[in-house]
Amino acid sequence: MLGDEKRGRYARQILLFGEGGQKKLKSTLVLIAGAGGLGSAIAFYMAAAGFGRIRIVDCDVVELSNLNRQILHSEADLGRAKALSAFDALAGINPEIEVEAVVERISEENIDELLQGCDMIMDGMDSFPSRYLLNRAALKKAIPLFHGAISGYQGQATTIIPGRTACLSCLFPRAPPPAVFPALGCTCGVIGSIEVTEAIKYVTGKGRLLENRLLLWDGLEGCLEEVAYEPDPSCRVCSHMK
Amino acid sequence: MLISMPDGSRRELCRDEARIEEILKELGINPEEVIVAKNGRIVPEDEAAGGSDQLKIVRFVHGG
Fold it and tell me: What is the nearest CA distance from B33 to chain A, expressed in angstroms?
């Protein structure tokens, strides 16, 4: 049973998935890859929802040009490591959860250690090479990867579940050319919120996940669409695992 | 063949069946920047399309 304080904090969402669902969230260890625009929305909503253990990883420091969208950080954090700034913000919003801040660049060398004990990966990265790294790690560990990406008013999200869905490389077989992307905080909010909704549904066993479905958000048109996709039998990453 | 372009506009293309990568080339679109759904399902660019197929060309994003 949850204590009175916990029941009070989560009362409105316990209406959705019961104390049992809340306890599942509490026992979930999440890796949030990136504490930028997407990572900010993801981290705030996961902390508020009571995901019990959050490991947030980012190697960058807070810059003024981040503050239009990276709502984990404030002017007082300029020059600080984003992961440490995130730690303070998350501890403030929900002191009942455990937060671990890791100031490192996610790489082939450290991904196994970063994922130790993790139940899921939240994509808050800003490039496809780093997402491919998360995808491979998710497949190897057989844990879900909740993908999201943004540019300007546009965003996309999908849910990768090893053994059940196509992988990220089936869907996006090659990375787009590198480019500076325009970024709006509210678009990060939309896509980050969708990723967290997926994670909550996954943990509590509610609803229909974005499995083999890519959700496309066009903020300029005010339009949400989905397109289906399927595993690529010749995928260079996952086909040999089937 | 009805094509939904990355900017949301629509084009009608009357041509024989062709590989999607050729269609993209004809439309002046870099295949590295897009994925293509044929009749609501994302397909590899070596797949053919034509006739009454509906293509949706999606410029996928990569920022975070």
Answer: 5
**ipTM score above 0.90:** yes
* B64 part of a folded domain: no
Helix (H, G, I), strand (E, B) or coil at B56: strand
Please answer yes or no on whether B64 and A125 come within 8 Å at the CB atom.
Answer: yes
Domain CATH code at residue B30: 3.10.20.30
**Domains identified in chain A and CATH numbers:** 4-241 (3.40.50.720)
The H or E element containing residue A195 is helix A185-204
- pLDDT one digit per residue (tens) for chain A, 242 residues: 677 777 799 999 999 999 999 999 999 999 999 999 999 999 999 999 999 999 999 999 999 999 999 999 999 999 999 999 999 999 999 999 999 999 999 999 999 999 999 999 999 999 999 999 999 999 999 999 999 999 999 999 999 999 999 999 999 999 998 889 999 999 999 999 999 999 999 999 999 999 999 999 999 999 999 999 999 999 999 998 86
Chain A residues close to B40, C-beta within 8 Å: 227-228
CB A125 within 8 A of CB A175: no
Mutate which: A123, A194, A216, A218, vs B, most B CBs within 10 A: A216
Domain count, chain B: 1
